[in-house]
Amino acid sequence: MISNKEDRMNAFQHFAAQHAALHARHVLDEPARRAGRRPPSDIERKTFEHVRAHGGRTVAEIANALGVKSPELYAPLQRLKTLGHIKPNGTSGAITWKAA
C-alpha cells in the first residue's frame, strides 16, 4: 500500500513515463497499417492502369493481359476497391472490374 502523497506521485510519474516510452516505441518502430498509407505496389499500379483503360474485364482477363496468375490479383484488386479507385460490376460468377 502506498503510504504518503510523495510515493503516490512517484508511482503516477513512473506509470506516465512507462506509458510515454511504450507509445514512443510503437510510433517509431511499427509502420502504419491503414489502407492507403503505403505507396501502391507495382502490380497494383499495373492493375489500376489496365482496369482504367479496359474496364469491364474479369480477374482472369486482367491477369492474362498483365501476364500474371489470377490469385496474384485478388489482394491488389481488394486494396484498390477499398481505396475507392475501382469497383466491381456484376453478380457472383460474372464480376467485372471498372474504374470508380
What features would you describe in this structure?
With 100 residues, this protein is mainly alpha-helical. It has 2 domains: 1-30; 42-99, Winged helix-like DNA-binding domain superfamily/Winged helix DNA-binding domain (Arc Repressor Mutant, subunit A), CATH 1.10.10. It is 58% helix and 8% strand. The chain has helices at 5-29, 42-53, 59-66, 71-83; strands spanning 86-89, 96-99. The protein has a two-stranded antiparallel sheet. Helix 2 packs across helix 4. The radius of gyration is 24 Å and the shape is elongated. Mean pLDDT is 78; it is low at 25-30.
Strand order of the largest sheet: 1-2
CATH superfamily of the largest domain: Winged helix-like DNA-binding domain superfamily/Winged helix DNA-binding domain
By DSSP, the count of extended strands is: 2
CATH architecture of the largest domain: Orthogonal Bundle
User: Sheet with the most strands?
Assistant: 2 strands, antiparallel
Give the N-terminus to C-terminus distance in angstroms: 62 Å
Strand content: 5-15%
Would you identify the regions where 5 or more consecutive residues have pLDDT less than 50? 25-30
- Mean pLDDT score: 78
Radius of gyration: 24 Å
Helix content: 55-70%
CATH class of the largest domain: Mainly Alpha
Query: What would you call the structural class?
Result: mainly alpha
CATH topology of the largest domain: Arc Repressor Mutant, subunit A
Return the domain count.
2
Protein name: LexA repressor DNA-binding domain-containing protein
InterPro entries: WH-like_DNA-bd_sf (IPR036388), WH_DNA-bd_sf (IPR036390)
